[in-house]
Design brief:
With about 325 residues, this protein is an alpha/beta fold. The protein is about 40% helix and about 15% strand.
Length: about 325
């Protein structure tokens, strides 16, 4: 299992692809995940080949990703074409860069509260996937759907993969997003373990709140959800994937108001047994009290961005050391 970094962890540093590769090499990671299209300056073949050559010179493997592939999602952007066109384009990019899987997602929590039923968003996602099946198979690139920003719980993602076709569709398991949907990351992994192709790993501090609980994403090793044990399980069931870090510490703590009926409008079918396992993490948690900078990326002044860029590097390097020294990620 190789140690990698999703460059979303470094987004406030405003670096080029080559600079992201150079920095990642300097902190000792083996894989760099370009999880969004905009981290590449261009999708021209000559540019991508240059980035690939630079990665090869550094001994770094590249993983590729993109955003929403659901045309009905609140997160989907048609700026680069239809969902099928964008997905096909990025499958070609993944093949060129030597990435055996390509990460994408359906949407976000907001898709569970639209006039269009949630099942319709899932169906639109499956339709997009089916439209590129032949291309994905021909290129030898599988599509890894992430449990993203509260869009799907583990059992829902597993069902979507089975419906789409597990011969060419799998999962990018994220450890931070399950907490937003009142799900234990252990439950998520149990549901999608047979399908995992990629991972986004970050730690979370979780504790009680008058409305339910609070979740704060933190550096690896600073959380309370049992990331060490989760990693052991991942290593046992998915030994051939890369251990890719997506360290996000700049977001404010998120209140999970599961003691209010409004929360369950989005997740009415959550099994009681699974929610109970989430509650066990809440009860075992404790508030995160370490100094940390958080800000609204849409409104923060340049001075904040500079400080957050420094914090992103510091927290990522701290996480890399923990992964090497404690988790023994080779």
């Amino acid at each position: 299992m190789k140690l990698g970094v999703d460059v979303f962890s470094l987004r406030f540093n405003d670096w080029s692809a080559d600079e992201l590769l150079d920095y990642s090499h300097s902190i000792g990671v083996d894989v760099v995940h370009f999880s969004e299209v905009h981290f590449f300056e261009s999708l021209d073949r000559s540019y991508l080949e240059q980035v690939k050559r630079h990665a090869d010179e550094l001994g770094i493997a590249i993983e590729v990703g993109m955003g929403s592939i659901c045309p009905t999602s609140t997160t989907f952007s048609p700026a680069r074409g239809t969902a099928s066109e964008q997905l096909a384009e990025m499958l070609h990019v993944a093949a060129l860069m030597g990435s055996p899987a390509m990460r994408c997602y359906m949407g976000s929590n907001a898709d569970r509260r639209t006039e269009l039923p949630f099942a319709a968003h899932q169906a639109a996602t499956v339709e997009t996937l089916h439209s590129v099946r032949s291309l994905a198979v021909d290129l030898g690139v599988k599509i890894a759907i992430e449990n993203h920003a509260g869009d799907m719980q583990g059992r829902e993602l597993a069902a979507l993969i089975e419906q789409a076709g597990p011969d060419f569709v799998g999962a990018c398991v994220d450890t931070g997003n399950p907490l937003w949907v009142a799900e234990s990351p252990f439950v998520t992994l149990e549901h999608i373990a047979p399908h995992v192709l990629m991972c986004h790993v970050r730690d979370t501090a979780l504790w009680r709140h008058p409305l339910g609980a609070v979740a704060q994403w933190v550096a690896i090793g600073e959380g309370t959800i049992g990331i060490d044990k989760w990693t052991q399980i991942l290593r046992g069931c998915c030994p051939d994937i890369n251990y890719t870090l997506e360290v996000i510490t700049s977001l404010a703590p998120r209140v999970l108001n599961f003691l209010e009926p409004e929360f369950w409008v989005a997740y009415p079918d959550t099994p009681a047994e699974e929610f109970a396992r989430f509650l066990q993490l809440v009860e075992a948690g404790r508030p995160y009290t370490e100094p940390i900078l958080t800000a609204d990326a849409a409104t923060m002044p340049p001075e904040y961005r500079t400080a957050l860029a420094w914090q992103q590097r510091a927290k990522l390097e701290q996480s890399v050391r923990y992964c090497r020294n404690v988790l023994q990620i080779a």
